[in-house]
Amino acid sequence: MVEMEPVIGLEIHAQLKTKTKLFCSCLVDFGAQPNTHICEICSGQPGALPRMNAKALELAAKAGVALGCKVNNRSVFSRKNYFYPDLPNGFQTSQLDPPICQGGELSIAGPDGPKTIHLNRIHLEDDAGKCIHDEKRGRTLIDLNRAGVPLIEIVTEPELNSSTEAVEFLKKLHGLLVRLEVTMGRMEEGEFRCDVNISLKPKGSDKLGVRSEIKNLNSFRYVGQAIDFEIKRQTALYESGQGVLQQTLHFDTARGETKTLRSKEEAHDYRYFPQPDLPVVTVDEQLIRELQAGLPETPEQSLEKLAALGIRDEVAKLLIDRRGALEYFEQALLNFNEPKRLSTLMTELLLPACQKDAIAPTESLLTPKLFAQLAKLIEEGTLGRRAAYELFPELFQSGLDPKELAQKKGVLQISDSSALEALAAQIIAQHPKEADKYRQGQDKILGFLVGQLMRSSRGAADPKRAGEALEAALKAQS
Ligand code: ADP
Ligand code: MG
Ligand code: ZN
Questions:
Q1: Is the pTM of this model over 0.90?
Q2: How many A from CA of 192 to the centre of ligand 1?
Q3: Which of 159, 163, 197, 216 to mutate to test the pocket of ligand 1 (most atoms within 8 A of CB)?
Q4: Same domain, 347 and 265
Q5: What pLDDT, on a 0 to 100 scale, did the predictor assign at position 111?
C-alpha cells in the first residue's frame, strides 16, 4: 500500500475573558448555583432583544491582531439553527459570512524547521447551557449559567500532519491567548477546547481524504491520544479496503478510543440565516491600531532579545514559557546588569522554587531587586555559591534582604584580606609539620591546609583566596 499521511485541521473554542455574557449583562460565573445567572435574553424568552458586549468584540479583535488576521471592519451575526435542550433559543448566535477575522497564521517547530500553520477564520459566538443528567431519578436538568457566554472559534487550514504538531500548535495558541488575556484558558473548565478534523491521504498527493471530526477535546493529552488512535483506525480501514466514512466522533477518555456520534447522513443542516435582532458588528481602524500598539512581544521577539544578551536557548525558553519569569528577569536586570549570571541563577534557584509553590516569579516575596542583590553578592565573592544555595529557601520564603540574612547566619565570605591573613597564620601555626612539608616541596599539602582554613572559617572563606593567603604566608615565613 502507498504510504499515507495524516492531515489535521482544528476548530478551537476559547471562552473570552469578560465579566458578563455576550448579549446580556448576566455574570459569567460557572461555580454558581445552577440558573442563578440567567435573564430573559440568555434564557431565550420570546421578544427579548440581545445587546452586544463591546469587551467581547475587543478581545476577539485582539486575538485577530495578534495572529496576523485581517480584522473586518464589518461582520455580521447569523443564527445557526438546531434543537437541543441546552439551547434555549433554538439557535446559536454565531458568525458565518463575513466573520470578524479572516486569515492569519501561527508557526510551530515542524519536523524540518519552523512551519507556518494558516488560519481560515476567527468568529464570535455564544456558548450553550449544560445538561445535567440525574441518572438516579432518571431525569435531565438544565443549567443555563453558561448559555450566552462569549466564545471565539478559531479555524485552522488542514495543514497539521501529526499529533505532535497539533498539540504543539494548541499549546502555543493557548499560551498566546492566555498571555494576551483574551481567555483565562482553564482547560479543565472547558474554557479552551477543540474539535479535531482528521483524514489520511497518500503522501505527496494534494487531494484531501475523507475526514472524521472528533468533538470537544479539552486537554492536550486527549488531543494527542485521540489523533493517534484515529490515525490507526483510519489506516486499518484503508488497508482492509473499506475506506473512511465521514463521521462525527466522540473521544472516550477512559478507553482511549473514538466512538461514532453521528454519520454524514445524520449531519445537521443548520439553515444559517442573518440574525435580524443584532446590528452589523463594526470594528474601527482606531481600535485596531490601539490593539496593535498594545501587543506584548511575541515569543520569537523575546527569544531574539535574550539571545542578543548572550543567554542560551534553553534558558531563554524557560524564561519565556514560565508565566511572569521574563518580567521578573527584566526587573532584576535593572538592578544587576549581568544577564547570563542572573538568568542562570534564576533557572537554578528561583524557577524551581516557584514551580514547587505553584506561583509565578512575579508573585514571590523575594522581589527582583532582592534577587539581583543576591546575584551581586555571589558575583563579588561576598557570598559563596554553596552558602547562597543553602540560604535560598529561607530567602525565598521570607523575602528578607540577602546580605542581612547572610550576615545573621554568619555565612558571608571573609573578603577582608587582613582577616584572611590572620587566619592563614593561625592555621600554619597549628600545623607546623604540614607547613614544613609544603616548604620542602610537597605542594599537595596546600590542599589540606586550605581545607583546615575553610573549616575554621565555617565555609565563610573563598577557597581560592584562602589558598593564595596560605601560600603567601608560607613563603614569607620560609
Ligand atoms: P465544518 O464547518 O463543516 O466542520 P469546514 O470546512 O469549515 O467544515 O472545516 C472545518 C475544519 O476541518 C477546518 O479546520 C479544516 O481545516 C478541517 N478540514 C476540512 N477538510 C479536511 C480534511 N479532509 N481533512 C482534515 N481536516 C479537514
Ligand atoms: Mg466542524
Ligand atoms: Zn442573561
A1: no
A2: 19
A3: 197
A4: no
A5: 86
